Amino acid sequence: MADAPQLQMEWFASSDADTPITFDPADIGDTLFDDDGSVIYTGSLLGDAWQFSWTTRARNDIDNTWLDGTLSIINLSDNQQDFSLSTTMEPLASFTGAATMDLSASLGLTNLQWFGDAMVETTINDPLVTGSIDGTNVAGIFGNPYSLQALGGFGSAADSDATAQGTSMTPSEAIAMLTSFSLSGGDMLNISFALNVTSIPAPGAAALLSMAFILSTGRRRRTPTRGGAE
Amino acid sequence: MSFKQMIMAMLPAGLLALNAQGDTIALMDVSASTGFAETYAIAGTDIGNEQQLFSQQIIDDSFSVNANFVGSPENAFIGGGFQIANATAGQIDFTLEFLLPINELDSSLNDWAGSLTIAITGFDASIESLLNEPIWAAAANGELMGTMLVDPFEMGVDGFGTESIAAAIEGSTPFEGGGYLAIRYAFALSPGDSVVFGGSLGYIPAPGALALLGMASLIGPRRRRS
């Protein structure tokens, strides 16, 4: 059974001087324990010109952490706004080897008005979705410059992307999913994301695993079957 | 198709329009194959521009629902969506419905448009339609307006990752307000996975109203310059 993850979220809206807001999602909203050992956090925040809601699932095992979930952001103002969110999880323990990161995300953009278009685009220099290890950005998708438009009144658009990245890093402090973007006024963006960080066994460990596999296979072959005719 | 008219008939009349503070009360109906079935009355929060925000979070032993919608009882539109997480080792069938009361309109509206986005995430995550049910359906005063992603529909992702889809619809259904605009989602969600629905549904203002808006935009700048 995996231990409960330690999560921290930081939310920023360019129109709101009271942001960034940093919080533990276990303290705001609700928490639900999944049968598979992961923990689901769900909640929402409301500002004068924005609304942000999340359903984020986290799991922390030795040498494997994952974050996935869904985010919804509504720009309640008439003007384009920049938003960013980081969701950071502390590993259960330092990884035992270099890590690989699998990062995937999908966007759902909706025009909430009967006129005009909706648009989301990257902000300067940052991909729309980034995965990081111990504060270093490792993988990014929807790289700058990127934009997605939903054309026409009440229109929608969707897009998906994914990447896998091997690293020489051994995670010890933080695995994080970052998103930053600019969203047109009066519109909504949904983001679903999946971030999986797994350690690559060191060469010595890989050799041991291989030997263990060969030995176990040999043992099974030599084990007489039961229930046969005697 | 029956569109929850029975729910509307069962609810107290006081819930159908405005609460004591004058905010709109929307209805949300949630049912799941786990045996869960509840109807929620959600008070709107005024966000300006004759719009209100409706938010509701639900936690059950088996799943979570996080609903967030913007709606306008004056202008007959709904926009927003649901986030759903399945916390069990088995597939769960869901039916989620959001109903917004609409004021009596000055004149009958006809033309409407709607759209839908779905994004799933998890390990071997999938979403599929229920038997003979569309993923998305909309109704005005209980009359079916249209459907999207009809049965059989399935979307999935291999391994750990995400997938998404968008769809759109438009049509013409006479509507004079004084009842409900409703969006319904029906689907099965794979074990241990999550989905977020987004979208909108609304009537396009009549040409006369558009002309008035155009005149107002012409007059407005002159006033500011004078």
Give the SSE map.
The complex is a heterodimer of chains A (230) and B (226).
Chain A: E1 6-13, E2 21-23, E3 30-33, E4 39-46, E5 50-61, E6 64-75, E7 81-90, E8 99-111, E9 118-121, E10 129-133, E11 136-141, E12 147-150, E13 156-166, E14 175-183, E15 187-199, H1 203-222
Antiparallel strand pairs in A: 1-2, 1-7, 3-4, 4-5, 5-6, 6-15, 7-14, 8-13, 8-15, 9-12, 9-14, 10-11, 10-14
Chain B: H1 5-10, E1 25-32, E2 37-43, E3 45-48, E4 51-59, E5 63-72, E6 77-86, E7 92-101, E8 109-123, E9 126-128, E10 136-140, E11 143-148, E12 154-156, E13 160-175, E14 180-189, E15 194-203, H2 207-225
Antiparallel strand pairs in B: 1-2, 1-7, 3-4, 4-5, 5-6, 6-15, 7-14, 8-13, 8-15, 9-12, 9-14, 10-11, 10-14
Helicity level of chain B: 10-25%
What number of domains of chain B?
Answer: 1
In helices, the fraction of residues of chain A equals: under 10%
- Structural class, from secondary structure content of chain A? mainly beta
For the report, how would you describe the main beta sheet of chain A?
8 strands, antiparallel
- Low confidence ranges of chain B: 1-21, 220-226
Structural class of chain B: mainly beta
Describe the structure.
The complex is a heterodimer of chains A (230) and B (226). Helix content of chain A is 9%, strand content 53%. Chain A is mostly beta strands and 230 residues long. Chain A has one domain (6-222). In chain A, the strands form two sheets. In chain A, strands 1, 2, 7, 9, 10, 11, 12 and 14 form an eight-stranded antiparallel beta sheet that branches. Chain A has a seven-stranded antiparallel beta sheet with strand order 3-4-5-6-15-8-13, with no helix packed on it. Chain A starts with 5 loop residues before the first strand and ends in an 8-residue tail after the last helix. The longest helix of chain B is centred in the last third of the chain and has 19 residues, at 207-225. In chain B, the strands form two sheets. In chain B, strands 1, 2, 7, 9, 10, 11, 12 and 14 form an eight-stranded antiparallel beta sheet that branches. A seven-stranded antiparallel beta sheet of chain B has the order 3-4-5-6-15-8-13, with no helix packed on it. In chain B, β4 (51-59) and β5 form a beta hairpin. Mean pLDDT of chain B is 86; it is low at 1-21 and 220-226. Chain B is 11% helix and 56% strand. The termini of chain B are far apart. Chain B has one domain. Chains A and B meet through β3, β4, β5, β6 and β8 of A and β3, β4, β5, β6 and β8 of B.
